[in-house]
């Protein structure tokens, strides 16, 4: 628990990227407000949400940026990536194409972001096991090869969402400390 009047020791900008409809906005809603919506509209308006948490007795404000419907290839602007120290690369485990596009997103991210950026690959919607189109081992292998963290998540069931953010934020924290 972090008192809102407490001083902030760090602000970490983290960007969410990946194809449309993979669940980026719901992952963020789960993390920032512990909310989920089954009929979430394409993201409009708000650029980022924040949540302040404590890591090793320091208060860290996570500033999480969500694409505002810019998920077409190369439509995400460089301003979006500017200053990002963490990234969550999201695909949908039930849609093979969203995983096949991950190398593109990674290339774009690496072209724009800081070289020390901490990246996690997230296979979201893992509550839909019966519709799985991407074996977890394929993603794990890709993540290992590229030096990314990897987790499967469910924003719906609130599974691994907290862990995913803590992995990235702690990874960043360990770099700056
Ligand atoms: P975005 O375009 O990547 O921001 O995707 P959204 O967050 O808007 O989610 C797209 C759709 O997938 C919405 O209907 C969500 O309710 C649904 N969705 C998001 N996360 C999950 C999840 O973990 N499990 C399931 N079953 N559906 C999800
Ligand atoms: Mg969205």
Automatic annotation (TrEMBL):
Transmembrane intervals: none
Magnesium recorded as keyword: no
Keywords: GTP-binding, Lipoprotein, Membrane, Nucleotide-binding, Prenylation
GO cellular component annotations of the record: endomembrane system
Bilayer disposition of the protein: Lipid-anchor
Lineage: superkingdom: Eukaryota
Family per record: Belongs to the small GTPase superfamily. Rab family.
Name this protein carries in UniProt: GTP-BINDING protein 3
Organism field: Heracleum sosnowskyi
């Amino acid at each position: 628990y972090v008192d809102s009047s407490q001083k902030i020791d760090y602000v970490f900008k983290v960007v969410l990227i990946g194809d449309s409809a993979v669940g980026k906005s719901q992952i963020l809603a789960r993390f920032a407000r512990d909310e989920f919506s089954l009929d979430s509209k394409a993201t409009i308006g708000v650029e980022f949400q924040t949540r302040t948490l404590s890591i090793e007795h320091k208060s860290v404000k996570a500033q999480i940026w969500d694409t505002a419907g810019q998920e077409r290839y190369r439509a995400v602007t460089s301003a979006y990536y500017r200053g990002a120290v963490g990234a969550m690369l999201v695909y949908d485990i039930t849609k093979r194409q969203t995983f096949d596009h991950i190398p593109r997103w990674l290339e774009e991210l690496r072209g724009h972001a800081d070289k020390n950026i901490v990246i996690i690959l997230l296979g979201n919607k893992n509550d839909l096991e019966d519709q799985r189109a991407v074996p977890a081992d394929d993603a794990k292998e890709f993540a290992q090869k590229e030096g990314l963290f990897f987790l499967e998540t469910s924003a719906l069931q609130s599974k691994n969402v907290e862990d995913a953010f803590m992995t990235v934020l702690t990874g960043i924290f360990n770099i700056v400390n």
